[in-house]
Amino acid sequence: xxxxxxxxxxxxxxxxxxxxxxxxxxxxxxxxxxxxxxxxxxxxxxxxxxxxxxxxxxxxxxxxxxxxxxxxxxxxxxxxxxxxxxxxxxxxxxxxxxxxxxxxxxxxxxxxxxxxxxxxxxxxxxxxxxxxxxxxxxxxxxxxxxxxxxxxxxxxxxxxxxxxxxxxxxxxxxxxxxxxxxxxxxxxxxxxxxxxxxxxxxxxxxxxxxxxxxxxxxxxxxxxxxxxxxxxxxxxxxxxxx
Length: 242
Description:
By secondary structure, the chain is α+β, with helices and mostly antiparallel strands. It is built from eight helices and eleven strands.
């Protein structure tokens, strides 16, 4: 499968690249690599010399406690660079795992640093990306720590759809969401049984369908109202900002 240059697509969601910027980014070689579900793209404790970029499929950042219990703290879609902080932090403090079979590429730190030094607007865009990821992490803390179970699951589904729409990965109100109930349990801090009950409740209310890794939201406004979902924390640029 041929991919358009993923960094060009990523940056042009945020700004209009100059000719020089476009040429510099286009010169970065991209080698798509396929990984099976549960493969660790980034491992806690390792020192990285590159950043990973998701090209297709779904990945997740997670931490594991002493008993081996995993807490997923973010999902990552096509175009995401989940470990950009490794440009400035010496040791990885979390894992990035393939939630589904996925395609990713690795971009050398030295290449990204050179790009940021020569083209400050690109450096600012990558810095903004890390800040948005931090904002999403903070919202996930509130989701797991404060919201009751049904709102917690509904909020995660609203976020997933909103992000998929912005990235061009949805067909109106349907998007790929190749997670298991175990993955949702890790992401919400609920038991698998509890996750199943919450999904059934949302289906009975005719708010969603979730079949074979595809999420469809039937009533966006009611689901957002139930979840208390407000998308400001995603900091998606308005068209007038681009």
